[in-house]
Amino acid sequence: MIRMRGLGLVLAACLGLAAPVSAEVKLPSIFSNSMVIQRDKPIAVWGWDNPGTEVTVSLGESKTAAKADDQGKWSASLPAQKANATGQTLTVKGSSEKAFTDVLVGEVWLCSGQSNMEWTVNISAYPAEERLNGDHPLIRHIKIPQRPSAKPEADVPTKGWEVATPKTVGNFTAVGYFFALNLRKDKDFTNVPVGLIGSNWGGTRIEPWTTPEGFKSVPALKDIADKLDTFPTKDDKGNINMQTPLALYYGMISPLVPYGIRGALWYQGESNNGEGMLYAEKMRALINGWRKLWNDENMPFYFVQIAPYRYKSTGLPFLWEAQMAALKIPGTGMAQTTDISNINDIHPNNKQEVGRRLANIALAKTYGKQGLALNGPIFKAMKLEGGKARISFDGAENGLNTRFGAAVSHFTVAGADKKFVPAKAVIEGNEVVLSAEGVSEIAAVRFAWDELAEPSLVNKEGLPAYPFRTDDWK
Q: Which helix (H) or strand (E) holds 325?
């Protein structure tokens, strides 16, 4: 009863948004033929009709009713269903009747961020082969149009849900598609459909995707939270600045709520490069806000490490540090990319491996699978031994290795003078021992602390070590 009542409050809040009312029953465009509905959660269905109209909603053997209020808004909630790979019909009857066919029940994930999430299968690695093998009727995708808004939108026009076929899959978000493909390889997903909501826009910052409540929840962002009534901003011609706070939440996230989802995949950060640890605070605001939107304080949020690239700045390692800090937020996980990057292309085309790594994180953290390697070596501790430093790691319990048998690379050390020099690095079991000529007493260690770093160090499972530093020097 508590969950249903909470869902009702969310529905009521969302339906307070303006939407056209006419002499027929209408639903937002997130509802279409071939949609995937989130399993094991109450099913929110909502829309508009003539004020006072009785609306009935049915899916399979479930049926419920609602009444349009004075503004023509109505909301209903059907009981949760188990996964169902057999198409059902969602029927809505009011002043007119709507019937959505081939409706599946499974796992739904929001795929958001900037261009590396928007990046499609067509422009990723091996596109012809991926299209040829793209016949996966239990994977579906809906693309949300790219539009900022000055107010929370109740609906946006879409082309509806598409089933993965050789003709359609090329336009799916590549990261999301390969994520879904790898989920479906697990035996427990044999009859579990996967739905992907692609709400993403190349070049966008994190702030426009964040909710007012998200900003208010993070004290470090008080400067934004205190002037939310001024956002999003507009230019002299009245055009909305898509890069300012709230703009894309209003236009591209608000219309989705409260459609049921399991969690979110996030690939963004390039446009916030240079902000250092402030980016971790902005991630916290985004996550807090989205979890409140969907009334799920534990909603999974898995993101992708920004890949090495020739930005010609010194900011990227500090952004990596912020992404690592964001992992302290419960229910998060990060897919590493320093070994699958292209320093001359901000859009590395190996989205297959990104999707696989995100899927492994979800399989372990969301779906309870055991024995999956989720991350590479993460700095644990530094122990000084004379003129050497011994570095230990989490995620290296089975030992360390290097890619392609290369030497251990990208370690630097500094003495009290704070001048970093390349270090000699030797693997000893699951630790690395460092030394450097001219540094008799090591004061600090940095690893892969450069935007072009594609280090060789991996664990026995082949996942790369995370960049880190032991100092906090400016």
A: helix 316-326
